[in-house]
Amino acid sequence: MRVLVYGGRGALGGSIVDHFKAKNATVVNVDLHANEKADENIALDLSQDWTAQEAAVLAKLDGHFDGVFCVAGGWAGGNAAADDMVKNADLMWKQSVWSSAIAARIAAKHLKEGGLLQLTGAAPALGGTPGMMGYGMAKAAVQQLTKSLAEDGSGLPKGASVVALLPVTLDTPMNRKWMPKADFGTWTPLAWIAEHLEKWTTDAASRPANGALLKIVTEGGKTTTTEH
């Protein structure tokens, strides 16, 4: 099994890299920094624009992948009255939309027939996000991209599936640092994401519907999903 993790140095990406390595998979990481546990690392250059980043990543890839997972992203707040609203929206677009579009291009060229492409949306972006407009805009774009990629003529390989994960809150070290008094039983464990990505990669019949926006909710330590 060979997979690519776009954002494999972050908390979620690192968990996915660890999980697939434990399953003896070959893992390629695309990120600003290397993940020493990955078999191959492709470093992104923030000085490059969107098209230059795409060209640089694609030039360093060969072969095919069973799964392409894009978990790159970030968060920034701000409503329309905030002075940094557009600045934050620009950052969110670069972190979530640039990465997702390049992941889609990777999948079109290097995903195996019947393979899995995973993108990362956000549950709040199913509705309005007045206090984090740039974030909501970017995640809504990723979710629309997911729907488009699931349609005939999208350019993905034959039999390939695409799903967007829409978590509410992930149980990451950074979230625990900034929200130490939160109810961690309502946060989705990173291992849950990694385990399900492996299951969906190896067993196509277990996957959510092609194009699903999979809202992930954890309550009382139990995680459930709803397809949108």
UniProtKB/TrEMBL annotation:
Keywords: NADP, Oxidoreductase, Tetrahydrobiopterin biosynthesis
Catalytic reaction equation(s): 5,6,7,8-tetrahydropteridine + NAD(+) = 6,7-dihydropteridine + NADH + H(+); 5,6,7,8-tetrahydropteridine + NADP(+) = 6,7-dihydropteridine + NADPH + H(+)
EC number in record: 1.5.1.34
One GO biological process term: L-phenylalanine catabolic process
PROSITE patterns in the cross-refs: ADH_SHORT
GO molecular function list: 6,7-dihydropteridine reductase activity; NADH binding; NADPH binding
UniProt xrefs under InterPro entries: NAD(P)-bd_dom_sf, Sc_DH/Rdtase_CS, SDR_fam
Annotated Gene Ontology cellular component terms: cytoplasm
UniProt keyword annotation of NADP present: yes
Source organism, top-level taxon: Eukaryota
Quaternary structure and interacting proteins, as annotated: Homodimer.
Similarity comment text for this entry: Belongs to the short-chain dehydrogenases/reductases (SDR) family.
Function as written in the Swiss-Prot or TrEMBL entry: Catalyzes the conversion of quinonoid dihydrobiopterin into tetrahydrobiopterin.
The protein, known as: Dihydropteridine reductase
Organism: Mesorhabditis spiculigera
